[in-house]
Amino acid sequence: AFQECWFALSEQKVGLLEGLLERKRDFLSILLRFIDMPDKDEAARFGGLLYSDGFNSEKRARLTDAAASLPRTANPTKYAVKAFITASLKSGCCWPQAVIAEEREGYFTNQLIEALDDDPAAGVIISILNQIKARNYKSGAIYAASEIGRKIQWFADILAVKIDCFVDSDKRLRGSMIGTLPVISLNEVSEEIDYYIIASIAYAEQIGAMLRARYADNIKKPELFFLDT
User: Is the pTM of this model over 0.85?
Assistant: First the structure.
């Protein structure tokens, strides 16, 4: 009995490790976004954490300590920001990107938009995600597990916008994962959801009508965001 129990636990651990390894790429992408492109709230919340420069070191400093001053221009050049990050790291600041996010709110978002000027959908997606952040919505879904839906998820990770799941009518996708988000049916969505981003152009009108009908009798109605507006 002990041996059977031990094998069962071992299999459970192996399964857990396999799951973690499958997710590591998603976790690392989120972590890198958090480090390289924090928003102002993240910078304020985590920039004050303490770190030590070595094991058992008595020296403690904030992640954002010892940072040199940013260029005073409203929109510093990429070269100036790169020089600032390099100088800050050398002087002991472990997270100069947080200093940039606090002092120049929106800098990283603007850089992202500039880098994606050749993608007409990018500006619309970023505008929608910024509206969601401004409204302080806590829960939302992407309707349609399409290629553009995956792009919305990618931008949401970069901009730290909370999305709970994909919703799709295709039964073959139910129970699967896209990145870190599950694909579920409309009936499984919480009644308290704040918004939907409709990740379809061709069927946007039909999806919008279906969602309005779904919540017609609810006091709380989620806001619908369309990519063609």
Answer: no
